């Protein structure tokens, strides 16, 4: 998943729909890239507070201090216990995902 600019609820719905696909019999691992200048309007923030979907681990590559701060605020409003971590380096993010235990050996 990759995001930049002003995120729309429809893009978030697409993400959730993909995570819920039947091909993911277990909980998937997610690697996302969030570009500098990405905006999370109020409707997107509200959407992420109300939607639920399960994932094994989520690594987000974020190249902006401002966007990182925004995501930190969103994560404080999220349910406890989510396996989410932000990175600046894509290789580190991928290595972290690979090291996380997998519910589905096909990942």
CATH architecture: Alpha-Beta Complex
Main sheet summary = 4 strands, parallel
Gyration radius, to the nearest Å?
A: 13 Å
Identify low-pLDDT runs: none
Provide the CATH top-level class. Answer: Alpha Beta
- How many helical stretches? 4
Which structural class do you get from the secondary structure elements? alpha/beta
User: Quick one: CATH superfamily?
Assistant: Mur ligase, C-terminal domain
Q: What is the typical, i.e. mean, pLDDT?
A: 79
Give the strand line-up of the largest sheet. Answer: 1-2-3-4
- CATH fold description: Protein-Tyrosine Phosphatase, Chain A
Brief account:
The protein has helices spanning 9-19, 42-50, 65-76, 90-99, and strands at 2-3, 29-34, 57-62, 84-87. By secondary structure, the chain is an alpha/beta fold.
Features:
107 residues, alpha/beta, Protein-Tyrosine Phosphatase, Chain A
Q: How would you explain this protein's 3D organization?
A:
The chain is α/β, with parallel strands linked by helices. It has one domain: Alpha-Beta Complex (Protein-Tyrosine Phosphatase, Chain A). The protein is 39% helix and 17% strand. The protein contains four helices and four strands. The protein has helices spanning 9-19, 42-50, 65-76, 90-99; strands at 2-3, 29-34, 57-62, 84-87. It has a four-stranded parallel sheet. It is globular and about 35 Å long. It starts with a strand and ends in an 8-residue tail after the last helix. The model has no long low-confidence stretch (mean pLDDT 79).
């Amino acid at each position: 998943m990759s995001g930049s600019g002003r995120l729309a609820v429809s893009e978030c719905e697409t993400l959730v729909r993909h995570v819920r696909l039947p091909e993911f019999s277990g909980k998937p691992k997610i690697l996302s890239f969030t570009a500098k200048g990405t905006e999370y309007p109020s409707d997107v923030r509200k959407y992420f507070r109300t939607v639920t979907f399960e994932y094994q681990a989520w690594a987000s590559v974020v190249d902006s201090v401002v966007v990182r701060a925004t995501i930190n605020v969103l994560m404080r409003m999220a349910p406890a216990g989510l396996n989410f971590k932000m990175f600046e380096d894509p290789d580190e993010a991928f290595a972290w995902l690979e090291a996380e235990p997998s519910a589905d050996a096909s990942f």
